[in-house]
Specification:
Two copies of one chain form a homodimer. By secondary structure, the first copy, chain A, is mainly α. Chain A has one domain: Winged helix-like DNA-binding domain superfamily/Winged helix DNA-binding domain (Arc Repressor Mutant, subunit A, Orthogonal Bundle), CATH 1.10.10.10. In chain A, 59% of the residues lie in helices and 9% in strands. In chain A, a hairpin with an 8-residue loop joins strand 2 and strand 3. The longest helix of chain A has 30 residues. At the A-B interface, helix 3, helix 4 and helix 6 of A face helix 3, helix 4 and helix 6 of B. Chain A binds a DNA duplex through helix 4 and helix 5.
DNA sequence: CCGCGATACTTTGTATCGCAAAGTTCGAGC
DNA sequence: GCTCGAACTTTGCGATACAAAGTATCGCGG
């Protein structure tokens, strides 16, 4: 049941449509992996350092992620210098893990098919 | 020069600079995964079907991959309709697996860090 | 108090690149 | 011979990643 999208997968076994473009981008993948490791949130500067991004680059990607509801940016309301604290939302975390699952599929596919390939190409996907 | 990269990795643990932009693109990742599974090569039409790509799109990505020496495209020399047979080169296969290794690192990192995160966020602010 | 530099964030411009629609060539069928 | 269709190829548009430059605030020294 509920194999509607699997139908497409069956027709196009290597399409990997589940690879969200929003998350798949290297910089954003880095950011999200960082944030997963720090559920209490990370500052702008910390993210910049961890992911080796320039200011503008980081800002742009954070904007994208925030507009998608994947991260939330809260500015410290105190009188001191307002530092943005970036956190991963629940939906964002779920979406991230969903993406990771697809990545694992890619890796498993590659590994399994490589096994077959190394043994010998018996029949090259005759039917599916 | 190459050691500098490791140094950078140490400073920026989540940068994942090893994620080759050429391979990381979804369509090309699909193509390479397909080709890994079919060392005898695949035709233009087969790749189009497997990866669910349009003609122009497929052509463009094959161009990119070929110019990088990742795949080789050989046209059937027979008198019949010349069909391009695309194969993964040895260098391409190596590069692909190198990329996959980095992907695995991402997944492992995420999984490990998630373990810590799932235990519980002990204190909201890391440093006071 | 006022300038000076540093830090945190934002804006803007460019160059790249993914994507698909249209074009071209070749073979098969009528 | 002409048409239809499949296999490629070309072209143009739109999105976006990237970084350089700009703005605002804080802390320090005069």
């Amino acid at each position: 049941m509920a194999e509607r999208r699997d139908k497409a997968s069956a027709d196009h076994p290597f399409a990997y449509e589940g690879l969200d473009r929003v998350i798949h981008e290297r910089a954003r993948l880095s950011l999200l992996t960082s944030l997963v490791a720090h559920p209490q949130g990370l500052t702008f500067a910390a993210l910049k350092q961890l992911c080796d991004l320039t200011d503008g680059n980081l800002f742009r990607h954070l904007q994208t992620l925030e507009s998608e509801g994947i991260v939330s940016a809260a500015k410290t309301p105190g009188t001191g210098r307002p530092q943005t604290l970036v956190r991963l939302t629940a939906a964002g975390r779920r979406r991230y893990f969903d993406y990771l699952a697809v990545l694992e599929t890619v890796i498993v596919d590659a590994a399994r098919n490589t096994q077959l390939a190394r043994r010998k190409p018996p029949r090259a996907s005759s039917r599916g």
